[in-house]
Structure formats: C-alpha cells, structure tokens
Amino acid sequence: MRNLRRWMPIFDWGRSYTRATLGADLLAALIVAIMLIPQGLAYAMLAGMPPEAGLYASILPLIAYALFGSSRVLAVGSVAVISLMTASAVAPVVAQGLADAVTAAAVLALMSGAMLVAMGVLRLGFVANFLSHPVISGFITASGLLIAAGQLGHILGVGGGGSTLPAVVTRLSGAGPLNAVTMMIGLGVLVFLWLARSRLKGWLMRAGAGGLMAGIIARAAPVLAIFVTIGLSLTLDLGGKGVALVGQVPAGLPGLALPGLSLALVTALAPAAFLIAVVGFVESVSVARTLAAKRRERIGPDQELIGLGAANIAAGLSGAYPVTGGFARSVVNFDAGAQTPAAGAFTALAIALAALFLAPMLAALPQAVLAATIIIAVLSLVDLPALARVWRYSRPDFAAMAATILVTLGFGVEAGIMAGVGLSILLVLWRASHPHSAVVGQVPGTEHYRNVTRHQVITNPVVLSLRVDESLWFANTGFLEDRIEALAACSPGLKHIVLMCPAVNEIDISALESLGDINRRLMDAGIRFHLSEVKGPVMDRLKCSDFLSELSGEVFLSQHEAMCRLGQLPGCGPAAGDAL
To answer: Which of 219, 302, 432, 460 is deepest in the core (most CB within 10 A)?
Structure first.
C-alpha cells in the first residue's frame, strides 16, 4: 500500500475524504469549469487546433492528474504559453506533410508525457533548477506579448498569427481592409472582459454581493460574452457580414486512440516535446509550490513529473494537445476552496457535459471573441517592470532576461527558451569560474576576520589572508592561481599566505593539482602556503593525496589560530608569540 500511495497519491488523500470535502471540491470545480470553457476554446485556436480540442484538453488530462498528481489544488489544462509552443512545433510538421495538425499535436502531447513520466521515475525533478527565474520571467513576458500581438488580426477582422513579432507585424501591415463589424465585436468584448476582470468584482461587492458570489460572477464574464455574441451572430447573420466564426464543433466525448506515429514525425517533434515538457513542468511546479506553501502542504517534484506526464499522455490519447498546470485557474481553484485533486475530476465532468450539450452552439461564435479572451488572459503574464527590478539587482541576470525576451520575439518561442537556458548555463559557469574572494583582516577586539575593503581591520604585512567563497574545481582554478600570484607580486615583504576555506565544500582533482602548483611557486618565492578552516569532508579528501605532506605551511583549525601563530595580532596571548 505504501508503494501505491507513493505512485498514486489518491490512495493517500482519498482515505480521509469526507462529505464536507466533497462539497468544497464540487463548488471549486464549478467555478473553474466556468473559467475553463472559454479559455479552452480560445487556447485551442491559439494552438492551431479545432475548438473541441480545447475542451478535450480539460477532460481526461484532469482525471489523470487527479490520480497521479501531488498538488491538491493545481488545475491542469491548456495554457497560453504551451499552446503557443504547440502551434510553433506543429506548423512546420504540417507544412512538411508529415501529419495533420490534430495528429501532430496529439503525438506531441504523448511524447511530452512519456518524457515527463521517465524523468519522474528517474527522479529528475531537479531539472526545474536549470531554468532561472529571470529566464522564465522573460520567456513568459515575451510569449505574452507575442500571443497578444498575434490575436490583434482576429480583433481587426484580417486574420492573425505568426511565430515571431516581425512575422506578426508584417502580416498585419500587409493585410487587406479591416472588417468594421468584427472590430466592433472584438473591441467591445475586449473592453467588457477587461472591466469584468479588473473592476466587476469590486463593483458587485460594493453593491452588496458576497466576495465568493462576486468572484464567480466576474469569472463567468467570458461565458456571458460567448452566449451574447452567439445570440448576436445568429440574429444579425454576422457570418454573412464577413465576420469569421468558429464553425461546426462536433458534440460528444473524445475517443481513446493512439495517434499515428512515424519515425520521421517523432524525430521532428522530439526537441519541441522536450522543451514543452520542461517549460510546462517548471511553470506547473512553481505554481503548485506557491499554493501548497499557503496551506503548509508540500508537493513532490518527482511525483509532479509523473502526474503531469500522465495528464499529457491522456491528452495525446484523447485528441487533445500538451497541457500543464495553469497559474490563473489554479489560484481560482485554491480561492474557491478546493481541498483535493478530486476537484479537477469534477471539473472534467463539467467540461464533458459542456462538450456533449453545448458544443453545437459554438458554430456561430465569432473568432474575435476568443481572440479577446486570449488577450485578456495573457496580458497578466506580461511583466515588463521586472526588467527594471532585475537591472537594479543583477546586470548578468538582466542580460539573460532581456536576451530571452528579444530572441523569443524575434525568432520564436523555441529559440527563445533555448537562448535563455544557454545564457543561464553560461552565467552559472562564469560565476563559478570567477568566485568571490577577499583579503581579510582581524576586526579589532574580536576573533572575527572580514574583508579589508569593507571593514576597519588589523592586518600584518608579512601575512596575507585570502578567503575564497566557493568550492574549488577545474573551472575556477585559473582564477585562484592568478589572484594569489597578483597578491604575492604586490607584497614584497610577504612571508605567509593563508587560504581561508570556510565556504569550500569540495576540492576536485584539478583544483588539487592547482593548489600543488601554487604551493610550489610560493615556496620558490620564499613564501609559505597555509590553509585554515578546512571542512571535515574536504580534509578527508586531502588526506588521501600527497598535498598535505608537500604543503610548505600548515592547516589551521581557525583563521584566528593561524594569525596568532603567524602574525602576532592583538589578543593572541604570549603563548602564541612563543610558538611563532
């Protein structure tokens, strides 16, 4: 049973499921379903998929996550960024004739799911750490801008889309005459949804409505916009006036089938499937951790990989496309009082009923309404002020964030995320190869030693103490050698150099060889080389080598002991002077 609870958390939370929990989950499911229906339709259009695929993405994937996911409130489904990445990955495959869009998207979901499950089984949840926050923030901001710009064509009645910002601008500038009726509908719905999201809840609460009811009504605004515009479309024959409509949407539930696979198709989609898996996991696990912390719960990153993987495999088998945990709907699920992943299963049931009974009504829905829904949803992703915050704090992180934004806008989502990951890795390597180091001296009247450039300290001209705030490995050994050589050259009366190692957690074989070279060069110059505050595990490794026997100086337990023995600083006592 313990293994079952590990792989299927439903056997853990399901044991304590009560009638009160059921009521809370049902209410949360209703609220999230109201939000998911218009979003699912809109994101399907963004992904280049038929509208029903957006509904399918919120049925079986939610049930699969409820069985295997570790977060109690994460709401899985189609999201803007993953939808954009799907469109970007599927388009070239369709252009090459390898598969149609629906098949390609289903294979993409299947592959992403398989990769996620494999990563979960192998306990690779730590891969989320390879995408820094500035890179993720920059990628999401650029994706939001790209998505919003790509939907403007639908608002203006001239079509839309484009995988890069220049392509979107070129398409819009070369488009034919605008459709006035489409513009009126699109802009009208855009303003209505913006007011509903930013002001309606406050207006309703001031009018006397309760917070929960006001929130439900405000989130139901997109559904209201859909029904009103469908009524207008049928009454005024908007299709005959040149307004682009969604078209026929088949009623029914998705069937289970393995999409058509071929080696060429799998090979073409593999890079995109991996990027979608990683980006989706990072986005999902960050949301899940944030919400879990509010209830003093915890999630398992490795189990999240399995839960998201199962959801994507379910999406691939049911004619949908890649899914992940969405921030907005997960917050709504949390605020609505969801207690367990069963809320997601109940949401799936509500979406299934919508697919059965409401789908035929969507044929007369103007595409401009879905475009407005997408724009309002993704504008919350755009965080341009973050650029200023990151600039003030860290120039290298700003460079990574800005480059990710520019590459994503200029060359597409896959190039953007790859550039961001590459820059993140380069920044890590650069920082690791240039560790912080400081010449230190004694704080008067204490046994503490601090940076000579930041504090008033006592030093001795014959002893130089250098603290290195990083483990020593092949990437930074050259830096350490250059630093010590430069310090020795600038101090003609120097007799001792003490390398302080309180932050050194490891010394690899390259660094060991480098320390040996430093010891020999200093010995040739008449300078003894010492170590202080070496950690136990590091000392154990050094004892396995010849370094300690060849060391010209000593290894001191503390920096103060070293300075008492070598430098005769105040507070050392007569015994220390005799020892020197």
So the answer is: 219
Given this model, what pLDDT does residue 390 score?
92
Question: Which residues, listed in sequence order, are joined to residue 466 by a DSSP beta bridge?
Answer: 439, 499
pLDDT at 571: 63
Dist CA 110 CA 105 (whole Å): 9
Domain final residue pick, 373, 402, 427: 427
Task: Give the contacts of 383 (CB within 8 A, at least 6 positions apart).
Answer: 137, 140, 141
Burial class (CB in 10 A: 0-12, 13-18, 19+), 513: middle
CA atoms within 13 A on the CB side of 46: 35
Helices and strands, counts by H and E, the chain: 27, 8
Which residues, other chains included, contact 515 with Cβ-Cβ below 8 Å and sequence gap of 6+? 472, 507, 547
**Of how many residues is the chain composed?**
580
CA distance 181 to 475: 63
Q: b vs e for 167-193, b when ≥16 Cβ sit within 10 Å of the residue's Cβ?
A: bbeebbeeeeeebebbbebbebbbebb
| Low-confidence stretches of the chain (pLDDT beneath 50) | 575-580
pLDDT for 163 equals 76
Q: Report yes or no on 432 lying in a domain.
A: no
* pLDDT score, position 118: 94
pLDDT on residue 61: 95
Question: Using an 8 Å Cβ cutoff, are 111 and 103 in contact?
Answer: no
pTM equals 0.79
Three-state secondary structure readout of 436-457: CEEEEEECCCCCCEEECCCCCC
Beta-bridge partner residues of 497: 464, 529
**Residue 482: half-sphere exposure toward Cβ, Cα within 13 Å:** 7
- pLDDT (tens digit, 9 = 90+) per residue, 155-189? 988 766 677 889 888 888 776 788 889 999 999 99
Answer whether 109's CB lies under 8 Å from 89's CB.
no
272 and 376 both lie in a single domain: yes
In the DSSP assignment, the letter for residue 507 is B
Distance between CA atoms of residues 533 and 550, nearest Å = 19
What's the CA gap between 460 and 498, in Å, rounded? Answer: 12
For residues 305 and 377, state if they share a domain.
Answer: yes
pLDDT at 575: 41
CA nearest neighbour of 230 among 28, 407, 455, 37: 37
Distances (CA, A) of 384 to 137, 212, 404: 9, 31, 13
Same domain, 421 and 557: no
Same domain membership, residue 458 and residue 403 = no
Name the residue among 47, 169, 37, 161 with its Cα closest to residue 109.
47
Number of domains composing the chain? 2
Residue 328 lies in a domain: yes
